[in-house]
User: Which sequence fits this backbone?
């Protein structure tokens, strides 16, 4: 157990949109500390989204992120030798983190050639309510619904 709760780190807003959520997304997208490359991938993906949909790219991305973010999840809880999957509400901060991670994870698994195209494709799919990231959220919700009987084991 740690002595004190760690201090909350505040991140700076991104240079183009002035949004801290964009910076959080780019920090998760970044590989090997190459932040400028991560920013260029994100901004190019937003531009592709704007070209394909004809809507504001940032708004489409925010809509996709809210569609992917789960509201309930399951956590393992041991009770008397048996392990139960206990459904729990997701904290708002974790909700966003999970949404970001799933969007990036399933964008990386897509079939397009460049990461920019992959990310743009996943953002468009998620904003429409389809795609692998949405399927992950639905699976998580389904799992929580199936284990609703164990909700009295909440900690």
Assistant:
């Amino acid at each position: 157990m740690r002595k004190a709760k760690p201090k909350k780190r505040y991140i700076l807003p991104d240079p183009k949109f002035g949004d801290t959520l964009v910076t959080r997304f780019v920090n998760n997208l970044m590989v090997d500390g190459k932040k400028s490359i991560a920013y260029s991938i994100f901004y190019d993906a937003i531009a592709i989204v704007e070209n394909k949909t004809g809507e504001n790219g940032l708004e489409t991305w925010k809509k996709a992120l809210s569609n992917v973010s789960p509201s309930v999840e399951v956590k393992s809880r041991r009770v008397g030798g048996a392990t139960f999957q206990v459904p729990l509400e997701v904290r708002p901060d974790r909700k966003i983190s999970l949404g970001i991670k799933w969007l990036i994870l399933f964008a990386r698994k897509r079939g397009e050639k460049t990461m920019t195209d992959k990310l743009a494709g996943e953002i468009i799919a998620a904003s429409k309510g389809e795609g692998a990231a949405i399927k992950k959220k639905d699976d998580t919700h389904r799992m929580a619904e199936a284990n609703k009987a164990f909700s009295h084991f909440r900690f």
Observations:
- The chain is about 55% helix and 10% strand.
- The CA atoms of residues 72 and 89 lie 5 Å apart.
